Every structure is written in structure tokens, then in C-alpha cells.
């Protein structure tokens, strides 16, 4: 006869347990990174918040700490590999391990050719190595730096969850975003797959999320503009932009053992946009 576990073992609190576990979030001072950090700390995790914006970082640090969260924060630019690795290593040694890292920091690289302000700067003729440079350095090399900061300890522990923030623009053509952004997010998805295969034998899971249009401060805050929001909403099956808080559930899934058999995959959070492509 099959024995059923006690009901508590199947409670959401148990299945998505992150309490007393340790995580790093890059780009934690705003938008999606702040939402990831807040749901992790709200559920008892210890989180190192990294961001290059020291003022905004202090704001989120103080807010989460006031709510009783276990947070540490450090102003770090993810393109500074040495500094990033040093601060992750310090956190790992204080916490005696690392359960997960969210490589989330990113920039937009300017508007796409399909927007009013991007008609001239976002077209193919305007593309130059210079305009791509910062997007490559932050959105791709910054992610590699973050992964490198975590894998050594995760290999020793034989467990860990790495979560990369990609985009729907890495899967399909998206006139709203820059060429560099779309191209590099596509590379982030491939980076995730490559790392997932290499690291699976070490017990390390690697996944990516593909947000759609989420109302954050990215791209100078143009998603907060009502006209932009309205025109983008018309392209979303759910009929509206997403909110950063709508990443909470997925963050807990990927951070916890609830996703113990999920690796090498891309999970959209896009109100149905990719289903149309
Ligand atoms: N908002 C969306 O619609 C959307 C859609 C798809 C993907 N994304 C991705 O989500 C991630 C988070 O973006 P967001 O929308 O929350 O934007 P956001 O601008 O609100 O937050 C991004 C954070 O990353 C930080 N950051 C940028 N460059 C950095 C660097 N070099 N080093 C350290 N920190 C740095 C910023 O200071 C900021 O706090 C990005 O990778 C972005 O490409 C966002």
C-alpha cells in the first residue's frame, strides 16, 4: 500500500521552501531584480543584493531589512568580474554556501526601429560596434561573470540553481527593442542551454526566464509612459503590461527544490506574447 506523506509535506511552504537558504541577485535595485529579492527575503532566505546604482540599492536594502529580511547589499557593476566575484565569494563564505544566483542585471541599449524615437537610431544602418558594446558587456559578459562567481562553490556542494534573465526578444523579432538587445538576449538563452548541459552532472540547474513587457524602469522608464503601455498592451493576449510582482511565483519555483527536475529551459512570463509568434 502506498503511504501518503503527512499533509504538511505537501504544503506550498514546504515545496517552495527557501528559508535560511542563500541567494545572489544582480540588478537587485529595481524592477525584476527587486521583485526577486523581495519574495526570497519574504520567505526567509538570505539574499545578497548587487547593483551598480548605489542609491537605489540602499533604498531596496533598507526597505527589505525594515520588513525583517536577511539582506546584504553591495554596489557592484557586473562588468567588473573581479569585484563581482570577490563580493559573491565573501557572501558564500559568510553563509557557508550558495543555493542560487539570479543573473538579472541588464540594460536596453536604446529604442528599437519600431518605436518613434528609434526610427533613426534603431535602424540597421545606424548600428555600429560602439552602440553594441555596452549591451554586450552588461547583458552577456555580465551574466557570464555572475555565473562564474557561483559555479565553483556550487560544484563543491553539488547543488545550485542559476537563473538568467533573458527576454521574449531573444526568441522572436521585436521592433520595440534594439538590435543589440534582441541579439544578445538570444545569446543569453543559448548560454543557459550550454551551461545547463555542462553543469547538470554537478547537480547544478540552469534556467532562463523570458519576460515580456513588464513595467519597470528599464529603457529610461518608457514602459511607464501611458501611450507606450497602451500600444504594447494591444499586442499582449492578456491585454496589459506585466508587473514585477508577477515574477514572485516563478522566482520561488526556480530558487527552491520545487524545480529539482527542471534545467536547460526557458520560461516565458509574457502574458501570452510568445504564443502568438
Ligand atoms: N522590463 C521588461 O519588460 C523586461 C523584458 C524582458 C527582459 N527584461 C530583463 O529583465 C532584467 C531586469 O530589467 P528590469 O526590467 O527590471 O529593468 P530595471 O532598469 O528596472 O532594473 C535593472 C537593474 O539592473 C541594474 N544594472 C544595469 N546595468 C548594471 C550593471 N552593469 N551592473 C550592475 N547592475 C546593473 C540597474 O541599475 C537596475 O537597477 C534585464 O536583464 C532586462 O533585460 C526586462
CATH topology: Rossmann fold
Q: Based on DSSP secondary structure assignment, what is the total number of beta strands?
A: 7
Number of helices: 9
Count of domain modules = 1
Which architecture would the CATH scheme give at its second level?
3-Layer(aba) Sandwich
Give the N-terminus to C-terminus distance in angstroms.
Answer: 47 Å
Major sheet summary line: 7 strands, parallel
Helix and strand succession?
A: HEHEHEHEHEHEHHHE
Radius of gyration from CA coordinates: 19 Å
Mean pLDDT: 96
Q: Strand pairing plus helix content: what structural class?
A: alpha/beta
Strand content: 5-15%
CATH class bucket: Alpha Beta
Bound molecule kinds, no repeats: nicotinamide-adenine-dinucleotide
Strands of the widest sheet, in order across it, are 3-2-1-4-5-6-7
* Helical fraction: 40-55%
Low-pLDDT windows of residues: none
Which shape, going by the Cα principal axes?
globular
Could you give me the name of the CATH homologous superfamily? NAD(P)-binding Rossmann-like Domain
Brief write-up:
By secondary structure, this protein is of the alpha/beta class. The protein has nine helices and seven strands, in the order H-E-H-E-H-E-H-E-H-E-H-E-H-H-H-E.
Can you walk me through this structure?
This protein is of the alpha/beta class. It has a single domain (17-270), classed as Rossmann fold, CATH 3.40.50.720. Helices cover 41% and strands 14% of the residues. The chain contains 9 helices and 7 strands; from the N terminus they run αβαβαβαβαβαβαααβ. It has a 7-stranded parallel β-sheet with strand order 3-2-1-4-5-6-7, with helices on both faces. α2 (31-42) crosses α9, α4 packs parallel to α5 (129-157) and α5 packs parallel to α6 (179-199). Residues 26-27, 29-33, 51-53, 56, 77-79, 104-107, 138, 142, 165, 167, 211, 213-214, 216-218, 223 line the site of nicotinamide-adenine-dinucleotide.
Amino acid at each position: 500500500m502506498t503511504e501518503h506523506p503527512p499533509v504538511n509535506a505537501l504544503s506550498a511552504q514546504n515545496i517552495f521552501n527557501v528559508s535560511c537558504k542563500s541567494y545572489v541577485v544582480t540588478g537587485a535595485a529595481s524592477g525584476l531584480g527587486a521583485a526577486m529579492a523581495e519574495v526570497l527575503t519574504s520567505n526567509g532566505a538570505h539574499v545578497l543584493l548587487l547593483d551598480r546604482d548605489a542609491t537605489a540599492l540602499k533604498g531596496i536594502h533598507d526597505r527589505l531589512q525594515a520588513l525583517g529580511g536577511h539582506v546584504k547589499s553591495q554596489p557592484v557593476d557586473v562588468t567588473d568580474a573581479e569585484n563581482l566575484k570577490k563580493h559573491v565569494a565573501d557572501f558564500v563564505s559568510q553563509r557557508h554556501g550558495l543555493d542560487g544566483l539570479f543573473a538579472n542585471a541588464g540594460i536596453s541599449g536604446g529604442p528599437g526601429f519600431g518605436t518613434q524615437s528609434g526610427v533613426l537610431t534603431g535602424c540597421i544602418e545606424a548600428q555600429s560596434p560602439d552602440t553594441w558594446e555596452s549591451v554586450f558587456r552588461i547583458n552577456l559578459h555580465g551574466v557570464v561573470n555572475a555565473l562564474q562567481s557561483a559555479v565553483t562553490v556550487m560544484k563543491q556542494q553539488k547543488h545550485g540553481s542559476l537563473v538568467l534573465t533573458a527576454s521574449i526578444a531573444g526568441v522572436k523579432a521585436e521592433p520595440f527593442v534594439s538590435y543589440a538587445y534582441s541579439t544578445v538576449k538570444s545569446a543569453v538563452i543559448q548560454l543557459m542551454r550550454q551551461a545547463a548541459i555542462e553543469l547538470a552532472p554537478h547537480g547544478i540547474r540552469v534556467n532562463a526566464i523570458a519576460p515580456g513587457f513588464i513595467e519597470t524602469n528599464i529603457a529610461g522608464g518608457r514602459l511607464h509612459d501611458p501611450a507606450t503601455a497602451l500600444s504594447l498592451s494591444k499586442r499582449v493576449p492578456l491585454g496589459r503590461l506585466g508587473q514585477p510582482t508577477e515574477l514572485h511565483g516563478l522566482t520561488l519555483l526556480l530558487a527552491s527544490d520545487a524545480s529539482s527536475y527542471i534545467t536547460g529551459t526557458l520560461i516565458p512570463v509574457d502574458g501570452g506574447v510568445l504564443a502568438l509568434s
